[in-house]
Amino acid sequence: MAALGQRSGPTAGAEALALAAELHGEATCSICLELFQDPVSIECGHSFCRSCIARCWERPGIPVSPAPRALPCPQCREPARPSQLRPNRQLAGVASLLRRYSLSPSGDGDGEGAGSLVSGCIQHGEPLKLYCQDDGRAICVVCDRAREHRAHAVLPLDEAVQEAKEMLESRLGALKKELEEFEDFKSMEEKESRELLKQVTVEREKVGAEFQALRAFLMEQESRLVGRLEELAREVTQRQTENLNQLGSEISLLSKLTTEMEETSHKPDLDFLQEFKNTLGRCDNVPGPKPASVSSEMKSKVWNISLKTFVLKGLLKKFKEDLRGELEKEEKDRSLYQAHWGGETEERKKHGPCPWRTPVELTLDPDTANPRLILSLDLKSVRLGPRPQDLPPNPRRFDTNTRVLASRGFTSGRHHWEVEVGSADGWAFGVARESVRRKGLTPFTPEEGVWALQLNGGQYWAVTSPERTSLSPGGRLARVRVALDLEAGAVSFYAAEDMRHIYTFRVTFRERVFPLFSVCSTGTYLRIWP
């Protein structure tokens, strides 16, 4: 640039104009369409004025940097972190040089700036009425006839300006739409977060109240049992005291009589004969009746308490096992949900947004459809027709069961799709292994290689074996998300509107699996959503 500054004449001016046209695209911010002011680069590689990207990312009440999460690049929509903005000194230098030599094509200068450069062709002195799309600069009619531009796409200057304005307006409209969508999404997220926090508070209070009631109940029952044991102990002690007193009296009396009889037996004969009848008479009522044994009377009462304690132990053991099992099951389901739909996993940090957060593109495979099934033209929905269609035979077609597979199968990874379901009975969907039997009547069971959700008899079912599992999803299902995790060995179903967990099959996958759909009633349908 310093060398150009020392040259003069038409050639130097033409070179400066060409250089300005070439550098202008690289030194212009795509947001404000002006030469860069304090340019910064983001993680995807695009650069913007620092103030422009700050305004674009601005959120009311929240500072732009550091940001709580990644925000989209205004140009390519890739996620970028505002905290990772890097000054781009090279672009800043180019923009500064363009301003120094008045080569900015914006025409905002008030001296011999860009306005004087674009008013006429420096090389030919003719007005700049044309625009060369290949070179990206304005030219005159003489330049248009020159060999340099003969094969180039050239437009009248006003048409080029109009086309550029239309492109700008289109881009601006798209950006405004994106902004509106992000603002709507932000509002929805805030609303849902408030509702979820409110629900969490309510559930926390419910849990506290339930466990408080449980503790009060257990304390009451403990008090009853301990009180009964204490009462029994007092009764045993009292009876023991009474028996010991009675036995003591009898023993004392017997000891006295024994002594008297021994003394009488040693008296002289005449004295002995006179006293022995009296002595024997005092023995007629001694000893008295023995008191009832403490052990025999209290044994049944102690046994009853022991039996209650044994039953209580069994009940508490079962209660703890059931409670622990339910909580562990909930933890597993939550972990599976987290693996599919949330969390900043290492893979997410390394590769960006998780691919399984986006539904897979699915269509129905007409070569597998039972002849009674009617598929939509876009191969997204299926219903049951009144009679079989005349379809060519195909070894992959279900000839008896009214089923159809998707055209795409999976052998690894995590995938999900959503299914819009009819409100009437007669549908089932899920996944099936590739080798599932296509000919003859086969049941819906995991042994047959089918893992599915079903609506039958007004009741939702998981088609488990040997018996189906009754489900209570908490209301009528309108759209269901199917989450397939081949590494974890799981097929999970969620209510799509609030991601409420419905059921999870645990499976060891050994072959390719395909999404499966079945309709056995003319009053309902299934549709791959959207």
Automatic annotation (TrEMBL):
Keywords carried by this UniProt record: Metal-binding, Zinc, Zinc-finger
Q: Which residues form the RING-type domain?
A: 29-77
Write down the Pfam families for this protein, in alphabetical order: PRY (PF13765), SPRY (PF00622), zf-B_box (PF00643), zf-C3HC4_4 (PF15227)
In terms of SMART domains, this protein maps to: BBOX, PRY, RING, SPRY
What is any one GO biological process for this UniProt entry? antiviral innate immune response
What are the GO cellular component annotations?
cytoplasm; nucleus
Listed GO molecular functions? Answer: ubiquitin protein ligase activity; zinc ion binding
Q: Which domain of life is it from?
A: Eukaryota
Q: Which residues are in the B30.2/SPRY domain?
A: 342-530
Looking at the record, the residues that make up the B box-type domain are 121-157
Can you name this protein?
Tripartite motif containing 7
Q: Which organism is it from?
A: Sarcophilus harrisii (Tasmanian devil)
Provide the taxonomic classification.
Eukaryota, Metazoa, Chordata, Craniata, Vertebrata
